[in-house]
Design a protein that fits this description.
Chain lengths: 265, 514
């Protein structure tokens, strides 16, 4: 008998004052999967993500997480078991790094000693020196802040992680470093991750599976390799064109054999 | 040390303790109403606009008027409560002051509260939601701490405004640092006025600095600043309030006084006679002319001196003038019947409203009586105290003689005499017992048509004390014992510029043989 999925959306719709509409969507994510929600701005990917942890209530349909129906009443209780990271991070500026990291465990009612140990553990996990604990968020670099943001979301050891363009505001090198680090933590901690991104390369390199959205609808849902190799939908082919071309060109550069013929396009 | 400074110092513990107590209660109440309202307003536009509009509207009412308006309002509530539940509450003094100042403190608290809460970084709010905080947890752990610096700035503004406005509690019968200012203004004791201003300003500045210390501690997360500021406020308040805490609860008599020197002196006279019989006495001075009678009828003060003509016209609304004996006996019967107020009897002198001019000016114009004045009035300026022009006496004398002045200006009484002295006014509404009539060489214009009613000074006793043997025994000997000359001398000794006496000192020489 197959296990029930960790996250499941059944016929979910959401309309914003008649202008933008999402759905009806059907999506299921298995435990341990790393899914990227890919699309341009306004395609509904952020709304979809927020409906998973109840920050946005769907107009119709059902959302299930870990065998529990997401409803307005269960909102905050459920969110304590789901990690959430977004581009603006939202570290609390009046709290030290340690206090920020302790938020989730405190809400979960952990003991003082257990929280203190957890803070050290989280700093080690995201590769920040322990001395960072007493600093205020204002004194950190962008990359350090986002590491704290990720660590805070992991605070109460959630099994599901929702990420909304988590590394979007970082420089390309930090972004790549953190992206790869996250993939490693995802695997090590056995998490289920849904990551919203508009960066095709990021989605291809990190995710097990990519869900492509446009105008509130899912237009493709497959493993990265399948999307790259001549997809039936022309919109998906267009989307994959740029990274594929770049990848070929980089590969050619690496081999030192650039011919005129490979420079088309 | 100057005698007047020493006298002011001696009053400081009492005035300051009430001032601090009143401001503290008003700010505490204002804060506990405004903060929840600010939270509700920051979450909902339906709450936001009406509450901010209401608070702004209150701020546009002059603070003195706001204080004054609460008296009749509370009086009405008090009589309702008396009718429904069997007991009323004092409508004068602390209650109206507290309510008015509380309302007055709300705008800065509310506006800064809303601004601070709505200015919290939306990312922090989203993160708090994402972490699974409930609405209350988000408010206490994230939104309020982040809005705290702005809220604290509002608290500083509110504190400074409230402490300043609390000086205006004096005219509604609440002791405050305003007592220095209002009584000093009446008796031209500028040392007292300055002392009151300085004390109030110093208090406001100190509280502002301490709140500033707490605010900077909150903003910069330096706990010692928060503790130092809070400790300063607590220790300061405790020291300032200690005279109130130490004092035995007031079970004694309360003597009322209106806002001029003669009233202060007579209140001191009555108080000293009660004290001589071992009673505890408090004086509530600077009460408005209409307020003081209602306060007596309601039992908030036990005794005060009023004038027969004033009571006849303003309280009984009579416009006839049947002669002084009939007025006195009419008052005794009607006030008792209507309000239960006892007219103990006349003190023996009159303080009538009269019109007066400088002697040489009157001579030059050939004016002796009000009838003579009518022909010249359109060329002259009338200076009056603040209430004369709205009193029935003025209507009566104006209509009886057909007086139409070229210009009419109302002054605070002290400045009215100044205006007459330097020619800004030609005729003033004076009081016949005023020592300045003789000292400034003024002539009182005669009233051949008897348009102005008699103004015998009479002692009134509240219904509550109608059978209080000690009070009656103490005050009865004053009936018929104060001559008009003695009263003029006493008034002048307080009002003059040189060798001024305090009202208490002036009271000592007022009654022969005491």
């Amino acid at each position: 008998m197959p296990r029930s999925p960790m996250i499941e959306l059944r016929g979910v719709t959401k309309a914003w004052s008649g202008l933008y509409a999402v759905g009806p969507l059907n999506l299921s994510v298995a435990e341990g999967e790393f899914v990227a929600l890919l699309g341009g701005s306004g395609c509904g990917k952020t709304t979809t993500l927020k409906m998973i942890n109840g920050l946005v209530a769907p107009d119709a349909g059902e959302v299930w997480v870990d065998g529990e129906r997401v409803g307005p009443a269960s909102g905050w209780r459920l969110r304590r078991r789901i990690g959430y990271v977004f581009q603006d991070i939202g570290l609390f500026p009046h709290m030290t790094v340690a206090e920020n990291l302790a938020c989730g465990p405190r809400l979960a009612g952990w003991s003082r000693a257990r929280i203190a140990a957890r803070v050290d553990e989280l700093l080690d996990l995201v590769a920040l020196p322990r001395a960072t604990a007493e600093r205020l968020p204002d004194t950190l670099s962008g990359g350090q802040r986002q590491r704290v943001g990720v660590a805070r979301a992991l605070g109460a050891a959630p099994r599901v992680m929702l990420m909304d363009e988590p590394f979007g505001a970082l420089d390309p090198i930090t972004r790549d470093t953190l992206g790869r680090a996250w993939r490693e933590w995802h695997d090590r901690l056995g998490l289920t991750t849904v990551m919203v991104t508009h960066d095709v390369m990021e989605a291809l390199l990190l995710a097990d599976r990519i869900v492509v959205m446009e105008a509130g609808q899912i237009i493709a849902d497959d493993v990265p390799g399948a999307l790259l190799s001549d997809h039936a939908d022309p919109r998906v082919r267009d989307l994959m064109e740029t990274p594929r071309r770049q990848a070929l060109r980089v590969a050619a550069l690496a081999e030192g054999s650039i011919g005129e013929d490979s420079r088309h396009g | 040390m100057d005698e007047r400074v020493a006298a002011a110092w001696a009053l400081l513990p009492n005035y300051l303790s009430w001032h601090v107590f009143l401001s503290l209660c008003a700010l505490g109440l204002g804060f506990s109403v405004s903060l929840p309202l600010a939270v509700a307003a920051s979450r909902s536009a339906i709450v936001r606009w009406p509450s901010l509009f209401g608070a702004s509207l209150i701020q546009t009412i002059p603070s003195l008027a706001l204080l004054a308006l609460f008296y009749p309002l509370l009086l009405a509530f008090s009589s309702l409560s008396l009718a429904w539940f069997g007991h009323g509450f004092p409508a004068l003094g602390f209650a109206p002051s507290l309510l008015a100042l509380t309302l007055y403190s709300m705008l800065p608290l509310l506006r800064n509260g809303v601004t601070g809460l709505m200015g919290v970084d939306p990312a922090a709010v989203e993160a708090a939601k994402g972490l699974g905080m409930t609405d209350a947890q988000r408010l206490w752990r994230v939104e309020l701490p982040l809005a705290a610096p702005v809220i604290m700035a509002g608290a500083r503004t509110a504190a400074v405004a409230t402490i300043g406005a609390a000086t205006l509690a004096t005219p509604v019968g609440q002791t405050s640092l305003g007592n220095y200012i209002f009584s000093g203004l009446q008796t031209e004791n500028w040392v007292s006025v300055l002392f009151g201003c300085a004390a109030s300003a110093l208090l406001a500045l100190t509280v502002d600095q301490l709140l500033g210390l707490i605010g900077s501690g909150v903003a910069s997360r330096r706990r010692w600043r928060i503790w130092a500021g809070a400790l300063g406020l607590i220790v300061g308040s405790t020291v300032a309030l200690s005279p109130l805490i130490a004092a035995p609860r007031e079970g004694g008599y309360v003597i009322g006084a209106k806002n001029f020197s003669e009233q202060y002196i007579l209140a001191e006279l009555m108080a000293s006679r009660l004290k001589a019989r071992g009673a505890t006495v408090a004086i509530k001075s600077d009460l408005g002319s209409a307020t003081v009678y209602r306060a007596l009828a309601a039992g908030e003060i036990d005794a005060y001196v009023d004038y027969s003509g004033t009571l006849w016209e303003n309280v009984l609304h009579r416009t006839d003038n049947p002669g002084r004996d009939s007025v006195l006996s009419g008052l005794a019967t009607d006030l008792k019947k209507r309000d239960g107020v006892i007219v103990l009897g006349p003190l023996g002198f009159e303080n009538a409203y009269v019109l007066a001019m400088r002697a040489e000016r009157a001579k030059a114009l050939g004016v002796v009586s009000l009838a003579d004045l009518a022909g010249h009035a359109d060329q002259l300026t009338l200076g009056t105290d603040l209430e004369f022009l709205s009193r029935p006496e003025w209507a009566a004398v104006r209509d009886a003689y057909g007086l139409r002045f070229g210009k009419q200006t109302a002054y605070q009484p002290t400045f009215m005499y100044r205006a007459l002295g330097d020619g800004q006014a030609d005729v003033i509404s004076a009081f016949s017992s005023d020592g300045r009539i003789a000292a400034d060489h003024l002539v009182v214009l005669s009233d051949p048509k008897a348009a102005l009613p008699p103004y015998d000074a009479v002692i009134l006793i509240s219904p509550r004390r109608a059978h209080d043997a000690r009070l009656i025994a103490a005050l009865k000997p004053l009936i018929g014992a104060v001559s008009v000359n003695a009263m003029r001398d006493a008034n002048y000794s307080v009002d003059r510029d040189q060798e001024k006496r305090s009202p208490a000192q002036a009271a000592r020489g007022l009654v022969r043989g005491e």
